[in-house]
Structures are given as structure tokens and as C-alpha cells.
């Protein structure tokens, strides 16, 4: 997993504006837990919790976590009792969610005041490569209508978040790795390599949304 997504995870960590050392981190749609393992090893988080609806992936996440302070659950939304997180992440999860408002509300309640949710989103209406992919697979995969970035920002703003966005600080983009479907990564478009098109996608259209829960005001 890290071999396939490591360059995106690095870009995420290079782009965020928070020190993760000693924090409690939530990973929404954690798949096999690779990102939380990275945060535990490289960033010194105090605790990480991840959820995903895929039971097989969660089994793998629990096995691969080893002695790290990580916990994983099979769930479609934030499990009951999971709260007071300093930071939350998701990577290509928002386009899969039918009730985006419910997701925004759940993440808001899970964060401590002043906490931030960083959501990577490349599958959106303004992304030509992924709009084509979504159009071809929407019915087969039972996907919701394709969200625009402004629509996502509006939903999270209505939930009480302060919303901002940035382009990821992408470095080198591997020439391989874009031809197999992975829920936690980027959907494939074709089996033919097209490195220039992928470089454009990662640099111009794969965005990092920051949704910050306001701090308590005295």
C-alpha cells in the first residue's frame, strides 16, 4: 500500500500546516491502515484510529499495525464514542459518500475545538480525468453524483467548519501504478501509460481540503 501511495502521503504531510507529534488522529476510510502506520512511525502521533467499511481491509490493518498505538474498526462512519481527535484525514473518500452532510457532521463532532480535517480529493467535477472515469463507472459502482469543489466546501461550511483548500506539494509522480483499482487511492482510467496527463492531474486537480473546527471562544 505504501509503495503505491507513498508519494501522495508524503505530499499530504508536506502540505498540512499542523505538527502531528503527540496528536490523536482519525483516518476516515483507512483501508489497510498504511497511512496511520506512517504517521506513527514518522510523526510520533500519540494515537491513531481508523475506520473503513471493508472488513478484510480492517483485518489487514489490525495485523499490520503491530504494537503501534493504532485501533481500527469496520464502520461506514465515525464509530460511536470516537471523539476529541486533534486531526482527521481522508484520501479519496469524499466522492464515495452519498450523504456528505452526515459525514461532515460526524467529523465535526469527532474533532476537538480547533482540530482540522484534511481531505484529499481528486475525483471531483472540475477534474477532467476523473470526471471521465466517474461517468463511466457511476452506475456500476453505485457512486453519488460527482461533487464540485465548491459544493464540498459549502457542505462543510454549513456543518460549522472553516474551509480552505490547497494544491498538494507533489514531487515526482511514478510512471506506474495507475492501472489497478484501489478504493484508497486513485481510480484507474486506462491501462495505457500517460505520464504527462497524470502529472497534470496530481499537480492541478488533486486537492487538499482543510476543514477546521473553530476554537472555543471565551
Explain the overall architecture.
It is a single chain. 37% of the residues lie in helices and 21% in strands. α4 (100-110) links the parallel β4 (85-91) and β5. Residues 180-185 have low confidence and may be disordered. It is built from seven helices and seven strands. It is globular. α4 packs across α6 (149-158).
Keywords:
218 residues; alpha/beta; Rossmann fold; 7 helices; 21% strand; globular
CATH superfamily: Vaccinia Virus protein VP39
Unreliable segments (pLDDT under 50, ≥5 consecutive)?
A: 180-185
Secondary structure tally: strands: 7
Q: How helical, in percent, are the residues?
A: 25-40%
Reported for the largest beta sheet, the result is: 7 strands, mixed
Q: Kindly report how far apart the N and C termini lie.
A: 44 Å
Structural class: alpha/beta
Output the CATH class name.
Alpha Beta
Domain tally: 1
- Stated plainly, the CATH topology is called Rossmann fold
Shape: globular
How is the quaternary structure best described?
Answer: single chain
Mean pLDDT over the residues: 92
- Give me the Rg, rounded: 16 Å
How is the secondary structure organized here?
Elements: H1 2-15, E1 24-28, H2 34-43, E2 47-52, H3 55-65, E3 70-74, E4 85-91, H4 100-110, E5 111-121, H5 128-141, H6 149-158, E6 162-167, H7 195-205, E7 207-212
Parallel strand pairs: 1-2, 1-4, 2-3, 4-5
Antiparallel strand pairs: 5-7, 6-7
Amino acid at each position: 500500500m505504501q509503495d503505491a501511495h507513498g508519494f501522495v502521503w508524503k505530499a499530504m504531510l508536506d502540505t498540512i500546516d499542523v505538527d502531528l507529534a503527540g496528536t490523536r488522529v482519525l483516518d476516515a476510510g483507512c483501508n489497510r491502515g498504511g497511512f496511520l502506520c506512517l504517521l506513527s512511525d514518522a510523526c510520533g502521533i500519540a494515537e491513531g484510529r481508523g475506520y473503513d467499511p471493508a472488513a478484510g481491509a480492517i483485518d489487514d490493518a489490525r495485523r499490520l499495525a503491530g504494537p503501534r498505538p493504532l485501533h481500527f474498526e469496520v464502520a461506514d462512519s465515525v464509530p460511536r464514542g470516537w471523539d476529541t481527535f486533534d486531526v482527521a484525514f481522508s484520501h479519496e473518500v469524499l466522492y464515495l459518500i452519498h450523504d456528505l452532510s452526515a459525514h461532515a457532521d460526524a467529523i465535526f463532532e469527532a474533532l476537538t475545538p480547533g482540530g482540522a480535517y484534511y481531505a484529499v480529493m481528486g475525483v471531483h467535477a472540475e477534474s477532467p480525468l476523473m470526471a471521465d472515469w466517474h461517468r463511466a463507472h457511476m452506475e456500476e459502482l453505485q457512486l453519488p453524483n460527482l461533487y464540485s469543489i465548491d459544493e464540498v466546501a459549502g457542505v462543510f461550511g454549513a456543518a460549522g467548519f472553516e474551509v480552505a483548500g490547497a494544491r498538494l506539494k507533489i514531487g515526482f509522480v511514478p510512471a506506474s501504478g495507475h492501472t489497478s483499482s484501489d478504493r484508497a487511492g486513485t481510480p484507474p482510467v486506462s491501462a495505457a501509460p500517460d505520464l504527462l496527463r497524470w502529472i497534470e492531474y496530481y499537480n492541478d486537480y488533486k486537492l487538499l481540503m482543510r476543514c477546521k473546527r473553530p476554537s472555543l471562544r471565551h
